[in-house]
Amino acid sequence: MPEGYPEIPEDVPQIFRAAMRRLAASVSIVVAKGDDGPVGMAATSITSLTVDPPAVLVCVNRATSLHALLVPTAPLSVNLLSRHQQDVSAAFGGGVPREQRFGIGGWYEGGNGLPALEGAQANLCCVIDAMLAYGTHSIVIARVLEARISDDVAPLIYQDGAYL
């Protein structure tokens, strides 16, 4: 730990994890291009960053198979799930083997060549601008090159291990 920073009490990580489970978040599927086809994962750590240029911030655990595919200038697809897409979230959250995940839900080819999910709240075709390692994760800044939105506003929300 850098000099001058206070020590973190031993019980804080466990309490912090419990606190963050109380934070309701929209569920998205993040997709990158792999050697054998697309690779995707469910994520709740996504937020808008700027409008000029249009960009999102995505936090990805460095232990995931998706992380190895994330490098500056690589394409990235971000699909904000609709309330009726719990099956897609569960599949990409690890409930289905990686090679079978894109069989759940309807997918089409987005503007950056990656799969985009039909019926999602929004689909963002992006390119990775920058990455910053922090703890167990990388903070990925992705520039949005194309966006598509649904007419209905009914996001899939996840909190404390369940969908709301």
Task: Describe this protein with a few key phrases.
7-stranded antiparallel beta sheet, 164 residues, mainly beta, 45% strand, 12 strands, 3-stranded antiparallel beta sheet, 2 helices, Pnp Oxidase, Chain A
Class inferred from helices and paired strands: mainly beta
Q: What string, H for helix and E for strand, traces the elements in order?
A: HEEEEEEHEEEEEE
Q: Which blocks of ≥5 consecutive residues have pLDDT under 50?
A: none
> Helix fraction?
10-25%
* 3D shape: globular
Summary of the model, kept short:
The protein is mainly beta and 164 residues long. The protein is built from 2 helices and 12 strands.
Any chance you could write out the topology, listing elements then pairs?
Elements: H1 12-21, E1 25-26, E2 28-34, E3 37-43, E4 46-51, E5 54-61, E6 75-80, H2 86-95, E7 107-109, E8 115-117, E9 122-134, E10 137-149, E11 157-159, E12 162-163
Antiparallel strand pairs: 1-11, 2-3, 2-6, 4-5, 5-10, 6-9, 7-8, 9-10, 11-12
Task: Tell me what you see in this structure.
There is one protein chain. The protein is mostly beta strands. It has a single domain (12-163), classed as Electron Transport, Fmn-binding Protein, Chain A (Pnp Oxidase, Chain A, Roll). Helices cover 12% and strands 45% of the residues. It has helices spanning 12-21, 86-95; strands at residues 25-26, 28-34, 37-43, 46-51, 54-61, 75-80, 107-109, 115-117, 122-134, 137-149, 157-159, 162-163. Strands 3-2-6-9-10-5-4 form a seven-stranded antiparallel beta sheet. β7 (107-109) and β8 (115-117) form a beta hairpin. The longest helix has 10 residues, at 12-21. The termini are far apart. The model has no long low-confidence stretch (mean pLDDT 96).
